Amino acid sequence: MCCVMQGDPCNCDLQEGSSDSIDILSKWAVGDKGWERLLSSVSLYAIARHAYQEAEYDEAIIALEESLALRLFAYADQKTLDRWQQGLVMPNSMFRRQKMELANTLVLRADCLLQLAREQRDVDDLTEAMELLQLATALLKAGDELGPDSIAAISRRAETIASVAAELLPQLKISRVQEVLQQHGIACSACSSKADFLVHLVPLLRLPVQLVSAGMQSRLGDGPLLEPVKDPFSSHTTALLKQPQEHIAQYMQRLFFRLLTLVPADYL
Question: Which residues have a Cβ under 8 Å from the Cβ of 183 and sit 6 or more positions away?
């Protein structure tokens, strides 16, 4: 089960269980030459946690990228690898602990990106951190581990992202906002103020913030243009959960593809 440790909500607080899972899987995979990849993945995750605690966020992310790659491609034998990868994203009780460990990796990476976004005022880092929370939530749900403690841990992070986004986005230079809009194919030639640009930008980023209404803005004067949504977990972090009419195979492919996008090509 996931539990919450007391302390800074930016600390990784989904309980670890790597040794248990390795013991369970060892007899099944001991004959595979790729077995050492799982052990290396666990070691790299520990290195990343230490780097995070030392505020070395870039180094932590590098270690997490390699840890994720080794975890997703743990075995050399193709049949064993297929079973492993399917188990990681299949919505049932299979590989519950392994899904939680994978979610921990994503949450720690989100924590690193959130800190970098605060330091460097980078909206891309903030957006990726939110996407990682969405993916972690989907994995925990798939492993039947999305209980009150896990929801509370992820909700605190989503609330922090919402708060940082509400502060950061209005501070972006118009040239940077235009750059992000152009990346999404939007020129916004009719935009004349930062508020006009934000009207187009906010829905694209899918961050847990909303524009302050015109009436409220008039009362606030020079107050904030954006405000955090009231329940970012329900409105944003559940975005990748399986849809009621979605076929399970399609859902598994969608989830695994999102995981693959997090792995640099050099590791594949």
Answer: none
pLDDT tens digits for range 179-207: 999 888 888 888 888 888 888 899 999 99
CA distance 156 to 150: 10
Chain segment 193-242, per-residue pLDDT in tens:
888 888 889 999 999 999 886 544 444 345 458 999 999 999 999 999 99
pTM of the model: 0.84
Nearest to 108 by CA among 25, 48, 184, 33: 48
CA proximity to 252, closest of 240, 238, 268: 240
Q: Using an 8 Å Cβ cutoff, are 133 and 200 in contact?
A: no
Q: Cα angle vertex 107, ends 105, 10, to 5°?
A: 130
User: Are 61 and 262 spatial neighbours (Cβ–Cβ below 8 Å)?
Assistant: no
